Amino acid sequence: MDKRALIAMSGGVDSSVAAALMCGEGYQCIGVMMKLFRNETVDLPKGHTCCSLDDAEDARAVAFRLGMPFYVSNFTEDFSSQVIDRFVEAYERGATPNPCIDCNRYMKFEKLYRRARELECDTIVTGHYARIAFDEKSGRWLLKKAKNLAKDQSYVLYFMSQEQLSHTRFPLGEYENKEQVRQLADEFGFTNARKHDSQDICFVVNGTYGDFIEHYRKKTYPRGAFVDTSGKVLGEHKGIIRYTIGQRKGLGLALPAPMYVCSKDLEKNQVILSEEKGLFTREFQAEDFNWISCEPPREPLKVTAKTRYHAKEAPARAAVLEDGTVKIVFETPQRAITVGQAVVLYDGENVVGGGTICATERL
Predict the structure, then answer these.
(1) Number of domains composing the chain
(2) Domain co-membership, 255 together with 331
(3) Per-residue pLDDT of the chain (363 residues; tens, 9 = 90+)
(4) 340 and 228: one domain?
(5) Does any domain span residue 212?
(6) Domain span at 314
């Protein structure tokens, strides 16, 4: 039986090289681009999105060169409900979401995974920088960091199930730098070999997150007070959705010393500011936790953890509570741990698991 793989293609160099590598392994490949939103829905001009006509033509050209069928699948309704709505609702309840994780979770590895089954493909392939391996000792599939640590994307893939890991390939995870990937694209004759990498949040390009949310909701959010931790009013904010934990720039205040957003009070519509030391904490909790390298541990587990995509890992202990949430305690206080962001636990190069931060305890 022929080996069949569905390639998630964005028009970028990473997914293009991933497709070529799988073809080189003898897979019968099918390229699929996901159309995720209409520009008018998110108030964007043409040519500024991850699924523009130019991107589709780049992906189609690569597929043609490789002799692959290529399709564009419309997932705009799913993307609105599973990614954009979650993004907006998180800001409205005072959290700071990571929509790239939701896109990977609910679109690439749920909707596209189903499409692969419909096309009788046993393997789904993306251009992510991460690795997958089977551990004979534990009998579990492992999600591992990419060899190129500067590009490692294991943080945004922590939600993957054992079934998904067993049917997924990340061909770029073995390459130690991005230039190697671009050189391969040159060798394959791809016209997108030197194309710039896409931005983090594809549907927010013009303006701020707050501008996007107000356009999407077709409403404005009420102004309120900036206050310090003692309750003293420091000025007026422009809507609570426009601020996130750790923010200093863009507050529009003339203060005698630098102040940072340390929390938000939705009931009072207040944004609370503090000095930088007020951002640090050691303890927090995470929900919707997915364990990859092991079953939920019965005893506290020593790990390293990171609470933002670009954060550095730090030593911590993780313990599962009775309700299934996970309490994580860092050895040393960490800056701006934020409700809504993901925490991912590591054991060396292996992802132990991850979840969504739901509560923090400030020092």
Answers:
(1) 3
(2) no
(3) 579 999 999 999 999 999 999 999 999 999 999 988 765 555 555 544 555 668 899 999 999 999 999 999 999 999 999 999 999 999 999 999 999 999 999 999 999 999 999 999 999 999 999 999 999 999 999 999 999 999 999 999 999 999 999 999 999 999 999 999 999 999 999 999 888 877 667 888 776 899 999 999 999 999 999 999 999 999 999 999 999 999 999 999 999 999 999 999 999 999 999 999 999 999 999 999 999 999 999 999 999 999 999 999 999 999 999 999 999 999 999 999 999 999 999 999 999 999 999 999 865
(4) no
(5) no
(6) 279-362
Determine, yes or no, domain membership for 213.
no
Task: Give pairs for 54-58: CB < 8 Å, separation 24+.
Answer: 54/11, 55/10, 55/11, 55/12, 56/11, 57/11, 58/11, 58/12, 58/16, 58/191, 58/192, 58/195
Same domain, 263 and 289: no
Q: Please tell me whether residues 160 and 298 are part of one structural domain.
A: no
256: amino acid identity, one letter:
P
Of 274, 303, 337, which one is at a domain's C-terminal end? 274
Q: Is residue 195 part of a domain?
A: no
Residues recognised as catalytic: 103, 202
> Which amino acid type is present at position 51?
C
Q: Is residue 203 part of a domain?
A: no
* CATH code, 114: 3.40.50.620
